[in-house]
Amino acid sequence: MHLSCLPFLLILISGIFCQYDYESVPYFTEGDYGYSHSMFEPSTAVCAPECNCPVSYPSAMYCDKLKLKSLPIIPSGIKYLYLRNNMIDGIEENAFDNVTDLEWLILDHNHLENSKIKGKPFSKLKSLKKLHISYNNLTEDVGPLASTLDELQLTNNKITKISPSALEGLVNLTIIHLQNNQLKEDSISGVFKGLDSLLYLDLSHNQLTKPPLGLPANILMLYFDNNHITNIPDHYFQPFKALQFLRLSHNQLTDAGIPGNVLNITSLIELDLSYNQLKSIPTVSENLENYYLQVNQINKFPVSSFCKVVGVLAYSKIKHLRLDGNNLTRADLPQEMYNCLRMAGDISLE
Ligand SMILES: *[C@@H]1O[C@H](CO)[C@@H](O)[C@H](O)[C@H]1NC(C)=O
Ligand SMILES: *[C@@H]1O[C@H](CO)[C@@H](O)[C@H](O)[C@H]1NC(C)=O
Ligand SMILES: *[C@@H]1O[C@H](CO)[C@@H](O)[C@H](O)[C@H]1NC(C)=O
Ligand SMILES: *[C@@H]1O[C@H](CO)[C@@H](O)[C@H](O)[C@H]1NC(C)=O
Ligand SMILES: *[C@@H]1O[C@H](CO)[C@@H](O)[C@H](O)[C@H]1NC(C)=O
């Protein structure tokens, strides 16, 4: 197993178990989990002359920050290829012919454009596990891709559409980063269907006006923040039995856009609805632990949003509740609230 997996897994696990820190998003971000100290080790003989293939890790080739305008020669035997921070704008059809068993291809911070990617060079990488092409100039996907893929990162491009077959058959794909593109719900409707291993999908900072259709039901984390979402279709989340983290902050949600029980999702642990236009508190499941509602227009606090019934064993599991930046003061909180929200260690109002 590639050593760099280790810090990555730690990031992933800490993300799942740590409290959501609103200001700094600690997990699944653009972490640099290549180990750059290897750049200073002597290189093996089987390496592109301008790159570095560390003696202690000869199947990795590091070609970061070399002002490369095109791909270097890639000798066979390389499995992990780092090409970050160059000026590569295109890829020739035969570019990967020596290394069809490449497992990681990291191309972040280049100038890649779809029109300069000739043929389908990525489809030849039959063992590819990680493909990162964030911070480039892509306007669409780069599929088809091998069914071995487990992580796809295409953030900070100008992607407006993903072909319906681009992700077809990627049964092991677990993580997709598509934040900071120009996607609308119609241009991705159904493209995630059949991705039965998908746990994480980040579509934040796009142009969605409603959540996309056809997402796999096993998903754990869904990020739709910073879009233009005005409403959630009734029963939208009903198929999702494992969803734990849902972010919808910085959208245009109003009370009318959130039908009755649509956010009462039994599996949910964390829900972020901050920076919307809500006047009331949407009803959530008694299992929810972190609820972010800051910067809305909320002016009432009905206990029924958290507890349908209150009793010895019937109460809300909310630990952290943020209501600051609304039209509520402590005097607006009803007395019976304390029975329902008996686990709440922290209710922010100002
Ligand atoms: C494949 O490897 C050979 C021998 O190392 C090299 O001459 C050739 O340029 C390589 N081809 C590509 C496309 O990198
Ligand atoms: C991306 O493409 C646009 C339009 O073709 C061009 O103006 C811009 O310089 C490109 N940016 C990069 C980083 O290649
Ligand atoms: C998916 O992952 C499993 C477990 O790592 C592996 O056994 C299987 O071959 C993979 N499937 C594909 C299509 O790569
Ligand atoms: C949420 O839905 C469940 C199942 O339908 C129900 O038992 C529960 O009382 C609801 N929670 C609230 C706060 O209405
Ligand atoms: C805030 O709430 C008070 C009473 O609860 C109401 O009179 C006032 O108009 C509200 N202000 C806004 C900006 O909604």
Stretches where pLDDT is under 50 for at least 5 consecutive residues are 1-38
In quaternary terms, these chains amount to single chain
Characterize the largest beta sheet: strand count, sense, and whether it forms a barrel.
13 strands, parallel
**Overall pLDDT, averaged?**
89
- The coarse overall form would be elongated
Number of distinct beta strands: 13
Rounded radius of gyration (Å): 23 Å
How many helical elements? 2
Order of helices and strands: HEEEEEEEEEEEEHE
Which percent range fits the helix content? under 10%
> In terms of structural class, how would the helical and strand content be classed?
little secondary structure
Q: Name the ligand types.
A: 2-acetamido-2-deoxy-beta-D-glucopyranose
Protein name: Lumican
Pfam families: LRR_4, LRR_8, LRRNT
GO molecular function, one term: collagen binding
Subcellular location: Secreted, Extracellular space, Extracellular matrix
How would you characterize this protein structure?
The chain is largely without helices or strands and 350 residues long. It has a domain of 33 residues. It is 5% helix and 11% strand. It is built from two helices and 13 strands, in the order αββββββββββββαβ. Strands 1-2-3-4-5-6-7-8-9-10-11-12-13 form a 13-stranded parallel beta sheet, with no helix packed on it. The longest helix has 13 residues. The radius of gyration is 23 Å and the shape is elongated. The protein starts with a helix and ends with a strand. The N terminus is likely disordered. It binds 2-acetamido-2-deoxy-beta-D-glucopyranose (NAG) (5 copies). The site of one 2-acetamido-2-deoxy-beta-D-glucopyranose has 2 residues, from loops. One 2-acetamido-2-deoxy-beta-D-glucopyranose binds next to loops.
